[in-house]
Amino acid sequence: MWTLGYDDNGGEFCFSEAAFFHAARKLRPLLPRPLLSLRANGPPNFSSQYHHIGNVLDEERKREYLLNNEKSSSSSSTSSTTPTIPIVVSSSRWNPTVEQLRILEELYRRGTRTPSADQIQHITAQLRRFGKIEGKNVFYWFQNHKARERQKRRRQTAADQTKYSEREKEEYEIEETKTKCRWPGTPTPPSTATLLSKVSLSLSLSLSLLN
Amino acid sequence: MWTLGYDDNGGEFCFSEAAFFHAARKLRPLLPRPLLSLRANGPPNFSSQYHHIGNVLDEERKREYLLNNEKSSSSSSTSSTTPTIPIVVSSSRWNPTVEQLRILEELYRRGTRTPSADQIQHITAQLRRFGKIEGKNVFYWFQNHKARERQKRRRQTAADQTKYSEREKEEYEIEETKTKCRWPGTPTPPSTATLLSKVSLSLSLSLSLLN
DNA sequence: GCAAATTAATGATTTATTCAAG
DNA sequence: CTTGAATAAATCATTAATTTGC
């Protein structure tokens, strides 16, 4: 599991292990950010949103939202001075532009599946020409796309196979045994000659490596 | 992804074991076998024009049919009745059903890697309820699955996705990078000390075996 | 036509695995 | 046997598409 911190400028993306799990969790915005900006890479139909911002909040998130509002009370008060103008909330998640999507899909089509960090940085840098984007967006895009393509394919074959057999939900029980002997026959233990040949091979290999 | 049993041409069937299973190698046919017209276990892409054939017979009858025809050298009846339609050739090799596959993968997931002969017999007995199967199929399945899982991982970690074509580079101006580190971390390559320790270990092992 | 309501897609996180190094 | 690295699978959450009642 990856936790992440990032900055918008470089797309640099520092990960740490589970030790930072809890702290990093809170990086996730609990509400659409109260920033006053239009979408940098707005999709064609971005007009009807800003609806019912707080509808999906559970108690936990409501509490945290209130905590956050305490800090930014000054900004909220300034916004209250212009109540008739709706606060334009920037999207909480990346939304690829058509150009970005086209390039990403082309890259995928040509074989890119899990790009390296450098590749991600480069792709991100290129795609930034077409709109706001970060490295993690590229990373996630490939993760998701790969997974969902696989999922699609898997569902297809599963559907094909279910024609032949009805699913049986019953449990199977196969007990574990401790026997060491292997299938298919009674394995004859390796002869001394075999062992010796292997040993000498290994020895010569080691020696050649040392040279 | 491993494709054991799904490739009718037999291209995916290879054994990495020693001369012990040398005979099994010959199971790989150079050409599709011209015999048998029904499959015991439905393959995913079983041609739809023959669905009616498959639907008539339940698994039990199919199995029986196969057993009866295992020794026959040529297809007899169906070819004459449908001369223009290519004969549905059953693979001579095992093709796992979804249930069999599910159980095998579950066993693998739970830690079974190289089951003992007893385990194999037990597993085979359980899986026979879902279709024709032999002990060697189980044995080979685990061998192949284990090997291909390892192979898959190695491919991913070592020589993964660097398939940018030249055209692509030019078009998107995304240059190839040689770095192997992947998003988001940078794996440290094995040090020289590590390599040397391996060599000396191998050497000492060989020497101890010689005593 | 229009939003509210609903559904489908998909971006972002979390969880469960894998192999293999120590 | 334990653990690190690194996903891939499963899941959550938000956005877009679509439907629906007016």
From TrEMBL, chains A, B:
Gene3D superfamilies the record matches: Homeodomain-like
CDD domains xrefs: homeodomain
DNA-binding segment(s): 99-153
Residue numbers spanned by region Disordered: 150-189
Domain Homeobox: 97-152
Transcription regulation as UniProt keyword: yes
GO molecular function: DNA binding
Biased composition regions of type Basic and acidic residues, renumbered to the chain: 163-179
Protein name (record): WUSCHEL-related homeobox 1
Species of provenance: Cucumis melo (Muskmelon)
Name of the coding gene: LOC103494337
